[in-house]
Amino acid sequence: MPSFSSPTLMIHHRILIHKFKFPSDAVGLPEGIENVSAITAPEMSMGVWKGNAMIQKPIEDLTVELHPHCIVSDVCLPWTVDVAERWKIPRLMFHPANVMLHCVEHYLKLYTPHEKVGSDSESFLIPGLPDNIEMKRSQRPE
């Protein structure tokens, strides 16, 4: 079997991370409430979305100033698509989802417990999880 060797390639990337102050006060949210998972009441979610929209201009201004090689954002900042297209910069999008959702989807596909119940409103246990988690066929993730 042939062996291959190559010299170690050392690549040094210059990655800059810029933080922006979330405009909590401008959208009527307490300091520290900057995302939907931090809200303590359902009516606060609108403030989070308004705040997300308000940081578009400062981020776009920084993009013009720094000419970055790419923009990395998640699905909660959809306007980054427009910024990236306007300035011809690649955009990397990530869609964070929790591990529980992935586990439930996996075990539903593996064991198909939803196919063993008689109706959409009948509960079933999701096998393979460390705790007894019940759901109904109508609640299944698509």
TrEMBL record:
SUPFAM superfamilies linked: UDP-Glycosyltransferase/glycogen phosphorylase
Superkingdom: Eukaryota
Family to which the UniProt record says this protein belongs: Belongs to the UDP-glycosyltransferase family.
Family annotation (PANTHER family): GLYCOSYLTRANSFERASE (PTHR48047), UDP-GLYCOSYLTRANSFERASES DOMAIN-CONTAINING PROTEIN (PTHR48047:SF64)
Protein name per the record: Uncharacterized protein
